[in-house]
Write a structure and sequence with these properties.
Helix content: 40-55%
Mean pLDDT: 79
CATH topology of one domain: TATA-Binding Protein
Order of helices and strands: HEHHEEEEHHHHEE
Shape: rod-shaped
Structural class: alpha+beta
Number of helices: 7
Strand order of the largest sheet: 1-5-4-3-2
Largest sheet: 5 strands, antiparallel
């Protein structure tokens, strides 16, 4: 099943023009340092290289994209590198906001479920309190300086304050805040990571430091190091 919208969530496709005609072996040799990292396996079939990374290190330039294919194609203008990369990390960051939104909605549902029972309990307690009288201090205790016992109004106020504190246990706001944070992280990563991997390919193939603006298809000015 072809689901291009779903694929865009975690797949990055792009094309990098090369200087003049270059063969696949020449291009893949320049990219070889990226493929020699620990936990990386790859296979070359003609002009196509498929790789996979297992638990890559954080300093690995391809750590975000743990699998993908690189293809050297020839056209009238010369050669180009086509790449199709997959990033489970982007997929997880995309799904995280949905998870926390679910937690927030669950907290709201639990609060709504508990509210009727709480109301009935409160009415029953109020009715019972109406039949009670404020406790009286024993004369001997009063003579000895004991404090006055808590009145029914004071007890009610104390219990209401405690209930307000307990209300935070089903507060959905933290879940919604985390959902927003992960949504922002996904948007930033979806824009930044394609630009970073394109820049990495240019640095390896051309042996230059590249100054180009973010964007999977952007072209920048190449500068010699130093």
């Amino acid at each position: 099943m072809n689901l291009p919208f779903i694929e865009k969530i975690w797949r990055v496709k792009g094309s990098l023009p090369l200087d003049g005609p270059q063969g696949p072996s020449e291009v893949f040799e320049k990219l070889d340092p990226l493929l020699k990292a620990n936990g990386t396996s790859y296979q070359v079939d003609g002009n196509t290289l498929a790789y996979k990374k297992d638990n890559p290190a954080a300093q690995d330039k391809l750590a975000t994209f743990t699998s993908g294919t690189l293809r050297v194609a020839q056209d009238a203008g010369g050669s180009r590198l086509d790449y199709d990369l997959k990033s489970p990390a982007l997929l997880l960051v995309f799904l995280a906001p949905l998870l926390f939104l679910g937690f927030g909605q669950l907290a709201i549902a639990v609060n709504a479920w508990d509210t009727p029972a709480d109301d009935e309990t409160e009415v029953s307690e109020e009715k019972a309190d109406e039949d009670k009288e404020d406790p009286q201090l024993n004369p001997i205790d009063a003579f000895l300086g004991a404090p006055e016992p808590e009145t029914l109004e004071e007890k009610k106020a104390r219990e209401e304050a405690k209930e307000e504190e307990d209300d935070g246990k089903h507060n959905p706001i933290p879940a919604f805040v985390l959902a927003g944070i992960f949504a922002i992280l996904y948007i930033v990563g979806r824009i930044l990571e394609p630009w970073l991997i394109r820049r990495t390919f240019r640095q390896r193939i051309f042996g230059e430091t590249v100054d180009e603006g973010p964007g999977p298809q952007g072209h920048g000015e190449a500068k010699n190091p130093g």
